[in-house]
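Obj: model holo form, ligand = protoporphyrin IX containing FE.
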Amino acid sequence: MTRTKTIKTSRIKNYFDFRRDPLSFFVRMLEKGDMVSLNTGLVPSYIVNSPSFVQEILVTKDASFRKGRTTKVLTRTIGDGLLTTEKTHHKKQKKYFQPVFYKERLMRYAETMVSDSKSLVAELEQKDSCLLDEEMMELTLSIISKVMFATNVDEKKKELAAAVSATIKQTANSLFSPFLLPLAVPTKGNRRHRDAISKLENVIYPIIDEAKQNPTAYEDTMVGLLLDSAKQPDAPPIFDKELRDQMMTMLLAGHETSANLLTWIFYALSKNPEAEAKFHEEIDQLDSLTETPFETYRKLTYTNQIIKETLRLYPPAWLIYREADEDVELLGESFKAGSTFMIAPYSIHRNPDIFPDPEQFKPERFAEENQESIPTFAYFPFGAGSRSCIGYRFAMMETALILAVIGRSLKFQRVDETPVEPEPLVSLRVKDGLNMKVVSRG
Ligand code: HEM
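Output (holo C-alpha cells):
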C-alpha cells in the first residue's frame, strides 16, 4: 500500500499558499498523509509527515540525499563550512570539529555563559522594558564569539547582530524565491547582503591573523583547534578561507537559533504562570556558591523540560530540506533522483496523536516518565543522522544556564497583549520583535 498521497490542488495554488503562510501550510498538510506529493511536475516535491519517513531520509538512507537548495543558498554567506559541505568533504570536517564540543571544553564555555548572563542582568536591572529578542541575540553573539574565537565583541555587538540579521533575512528571501539571482547582481537586497557579509569579514579576518601570530591566546578556541589540527602529520594545510567559512558558520548557526529559542521560552513563561512558578522554585534552590556552572546545569531538570517543550512548539530549525541524489526507495516506495523533501519539525511536533492538545505549553510532556511515549523521529529539534546539530549539547547547556542566571533576578511580562506571531526565516523568530516589561524578582 502506498503511503504517499498527492494533493489535488494545483502547484501554483500550493506555492502561493506556502509563500503566504508556510507554517499554517505545513500544519494543514499534516493530516493529508505520511508523505504528501505537491504535484510539482518535473521536479517532484514532497512534504514528509510520518516519523518513519523522517528516519528513512535523515538516517537510514541519508547517503542517498544532499541538503540541496539550502546549501546552495547558505553557501553564498558562509562558504564551505560544516553546515553547507556535502559528502566526503562534510565527513572530514565533522571529524575535525568534534573536539570543539568535548565535555571539558563545554565545562569551560559554561563559565562564559554564566558571566555574560550576569552582565546582561546588571544592564537589564536599569531598564523598565526591553526588546527581548535583541537582548538575547546580543547575548548569544557575545558568548559564541568569546568561546569560539576568544574575541570580545561587546563594543560591536549591535552592529554585528544587525549584520547577521541582514544576512539571515536575505538568505531566507532567496531560500523561498523561485529564482536565485547571483549575489553579484546589484539588486537592493544583494547589496545589503554583501555589505553585511563585509562587516562580518572585517571582524573575522583580523582574528585569523591575530590567532596565527599569537597561537597561545587562541589555543582553547575553535580557531586555535582548527589551526592545530592542520599541524598534525599528514594533515592538509588549512587556509584562511576555510577558517573564515567555519567562523561564519558558527556565527550564523550558533547564535541566532539559541537567541530565538530563549526569546520563545521567556514568552512562553510569561503566558504560563504555573510553569513559570515551578521554574522559579527550581532555580531558587540552586546554591551558586558551591557549584560550578556545569554542576548547576545538571540540576536543572524542570528547566530542561521547559526548553524541550519550547523546542517542540517553536523549533528554531523549523524546516529541514533534503534532495535525492539518486533514485531511492523509501519504505518500499520509489522516488526519482532530484526529488525534494521538506521535513518541518514545526508541524510534525504538532501531531495530536503523539502530542495531545498540541498547541498547549506543557513541559511535563518531557518528564522522564512521559518521554518514553514520544517516538524518536516524531521530535527532532536538532535534526538527526549524519547532519544532526553538532552544537546540540552546547545549545541545551547555554539555554539552561542563561535561563537560570536571568530567572533568579528577573522576569518578563508582556508590555501589551498584541498577538505574537512566529516568523519563519532561516530560523523561527518572533515577528516584529518582543517588547517586554523587565520585572525585578526582589
Ligand atoms: C537551539 C539551538 C539550535 C537548534 C534548534 C539547532 C538545530 C539544528 C538542526 C536541526 C541542524 C540540522 C540541519 C539539517 O539537518 O539540515 C543543525 C545543524 C548544525 N548546527 Fe545547530 N542548532 C542549534 C544551535 C547550534 C549551536 C549553538 C551551534 C554551534 C555552536 C550549532 C551548529 C550547527 C552546525 C555546525 C550544524 C551543521 C552540522 C552538520 O551538517 O554536520 N547549532 N542545527
